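Is fe (ii) ion placement plausible here? Inputs below.
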Amino acid sequence: MTSTLIINYRNLAPRDGELYLLPAFYPPTIADSYLHSLLQNLAWQTEKIQLFGHWVSVPRLMAWYGDPGADYRYSGVDHQPLPWTSELQSIRSDVETVCQQSFNSVLANLYRDGKDSMGCHADNEKELGANPLIASLSFGETRLLRFRHARSRTTLDIELRHGDLLIMAGALQHHWRHELPKTRRAKQARINLTFRRIVSTPTSPALSAAR
Ligand SMILES: O=C(O)CCC(=O)C(=O)O
Ligand SMILES: [Fe+2]
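Reply from A.M.:
I modeled the complex. C-alpha cells:
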C-alpha cells in the first residue's frame, strides 16, 4: 500500500514511522483557486471542547465531511460527517491516486492567522485502525508542523506551503505527536485538509461512552 510512496519519495521520519512531503502537489494557480473556494464553500464551525470543566473554543475553525456512517471522534466529541462537496471529491480522487488508498472522510481546519493553532496530539483514534495513512493538504499561508518523538524527545519541523501534500503512514502515530504552533509571522489564512479512512465506527452507546 505504501510501497510506491517508499519507492518514489524519501521518508522524512528518522525512525518509527513514515512521513512523505510532496511539495506543490497542486501548482500555485490550482492551489489558489482551491484556497478561495474552500474558504467560501465549506461549512466552517467553531468547535468547543471541555477543559477542566469549562467549555472553550478551539483556536481554529473546522468542518468534517465524509461518507455516511464515517463518524469520528475528535476534541472529545462525536462528529457525523457532512456529505462530500464536488470539489472535495475531486481533491480526494487526486490524493487517492498518489496514496493508492481510498479515503472515506476529510477533516478540514482553517487557521485564520498565526494566532490559530493545533495542540500536540497523535491521530491514533481506534476508528483509524492500527497504522493509518493520513494525507494532509495545505493551502494558503506557510505554517510549521512540529513532530515530537515520544521517547527520545527528538523534534522534526516541517514547513507546509501552499499546495503541499504531507503523508503520514506506518507506525508514525504510535511514536510521534504533532502540533501546529502559533506564530507571529503568519498573517494570512491557511486551510488544511486531512484525508482519513475510518475503518470502524462506534456501534453502541456503550462503546462510544467508553472512549
Ligand atoms: O494543520 C495541520 O497541518 C495539522 C492538522 C492535524 O494534525 C489534524 O487535523 O489532525
Ligand atoms: Fe493530526
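Short version: Confidence is low (pLDDT under 50) at residues 204-211.
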